[in-house]
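Field reference: "sequence" (input) and "structure" (output). Example, ABM domain-containing protein:
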Amino acid sequence: MLVVTNTLKIKEGHAEAIAQRFGASNGVQDMPGFVRMEVWHGSPKDGAEELKICTVWENEEAFKGWTSSDAFRQSHRGAGGNEAILGATLDKYELLVSRTPGE
């Protein structure tokens, strides 16, 4: 299992609008090996907000399939032109331990 986090630093007051575009159908939900996506919103700090877009994949190959797909290119078209986005970082994590209630 692989979790990929795309952390976006957003001008304060703009995070909710940007988060909404991740709720639209953009093809990621149809990709082989895609498990789920969550968008997390951090508290405003120093005039900026943070969004963490977390996607969960069965494996690295599934994620690479997404990033090389036409759907990925279409969904990211024009994303660099949004002046409310102050910066972004991408991180990958491999799941080592998982617990659920009652375990």
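The first strand starts at residue 2 and ends at 11.
The mean pLDDT is 91.
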